[in-house]
Amino acid sequence: MKPAGALLVVVAALGIAPPCTGLTCLEQPRNVTVYVVNTNITLKWVWDNPCDLNVTFSVQYQEESGSKERNRESWSLISECQNVRITECDLSSALSEDRDYNVSIRASTGEDQSPWASLIFCPYLEAQIGPPGVQLESIYGGDVKITIFHPEANQQRRMWELSSLRYKLTLWKNSSYPEEKKQDVFSGETIPDLEPETIYCLKVKAHQFDRIALYSPNTCIQTQKAWAGLPRPKNLRLHALNMNFILHWDNIYDVNVSFVVQWLSKYEAERSPDISENWLNVSGCENIPTTYCDVSRSISFIGIYYLRVQALNSHNKSPWSKMLKFEPREDIELGPPSVKVNATENSLNIFIASPGESENTPMSKEYSLTYRVWYWTNSSYAKKKREDKPMQFTISGLNPSTLYCLQVQAFAQAYNKNSEFSNVTCIETTKGESSYQLIIVVLGIILAVGAFVAILAGSIYCIWRQIKYAFFPSCHPPMIIESIGGKYLNSSYLLTSEEPTEDCVVITDNSIPNGVDLPDFKDPKELEEISQDSGNYSNEDGISRTKEYHITQEQKAV
Questions:
Q1: What digits encode the pLDDT tens for the residues 47-65?
Q2: Alpha carbon of residue 254 to chain centroid
Q3: Does residue 513 have a pLDDT over 50?
Q4: DSSP letters of 331-378?
Q5: 334 Cβ contact list (under 8 Å, min separation 6)
């Protein structure tokens, strides 16, 4: 048994034990944390040292690969963090900002070492924004210009891009009961309308979403005496209807003055180290005598803008007005849409032109618009509502010969923005056809169809008769004709030439001999018919009667 072990056994047997002995006092560090400000990474831990041991600490790290198994050989040592006696270590030179790391720390007495205590973190996710630099300048009596320097202005490595940071100002009067005022601020901006000859203090911090940021040290300045020159223009306001932007301000001057208007985009302001150098004059708004100006040509629909005005009188200039913020997408007012209506018997066809379309700046290109139509009969105040997205639609189910009036309003649902109402448009639906007229029309159609069917049937019947007469006759030639010349003609119904016939002579004696009975003679009309019947198709009865008549006459003559 070793002497130390024997000593422990003896001490234990006597019932006397030291508060801690050997490895029982060499515990691993606890509460390991990392503190990241900008690109400065500091590892901190706690070690109580209850046994008052002479210990040192060593730190190692490795990049996290996502694998559960860690290679012991992949650990790297940080020379500045080996065998240190303080409970913190600067890791800035060893770690990158956008990687995940596993950092371990242990205590050592030279011969013995504690277990490793580990911490996994990503520097960028843990980073806080450091305090920016601030410089103040008193101008124009109660105005103070503030210049803000990037939190990493003098560092080669940067955690934050210039464009990603915004700044917030906290301002208070240096008095017994200060009242703090907070606002967003750009570098190079002027803080207006402070009390002259008064000490003001302020502090500034950057902000980026919900990230923690540190305030700058308090900075104080005394304002100048009250300004005795031209006062600054006041009460700036912008009337924005569709894409027409008119800036107005109050006329507070007793002398002849002119004005100049300037604009600045928020995009430029956030990236500028001094916005006082980035303002631009609005075209057409330089040295104007009016207290309004059209700024439409300098401002587009997308983005956020700032406007300011200065008064001029000879060589005298007023301080610049307070900046007016303008965001077209949010601040624009929609004008009324244009409406055209056509009426039928029971419907209205509505054609809508979006606000601004008559000025070649249709707001339907900038917003997704829905159209609300209120319509009512001219004799009633009860309005009905129709809502639809298309710019052309029909309201049906209306009464004929009725005067209807309507108004249309555009609505941008995403921005909860309503346009002005269009002018009231009234139009009368057309007359409907009466039941009497409808009956006449129906009867006319029926008669026309009936006449057409009758004509068609008659034409078919006539054609059929001609065909039947030519090819299927109902009567046949007399037997005497069929056998003329010993040749039957049944095989041909259409004769190509006139066949020879017997000549029949009828002798007519106007005097009637004595002794002849009148009944023996035929009726003169019958005789005339017989004399005229010399055709090729006389029927058998006529021929037989003629032959009998001639025989009778011959017998009587004998």
A1: 888 788 889 999 999 998 7
A2: 51
A3: no
A4: HPBB-PPEEEEEE-SSEEEEEEE-TTGGGT--GGGTS-EEEEEEEEET
A5: 241, 242, 355, 363, 367, 410, 412, 417, 418, 419, 420
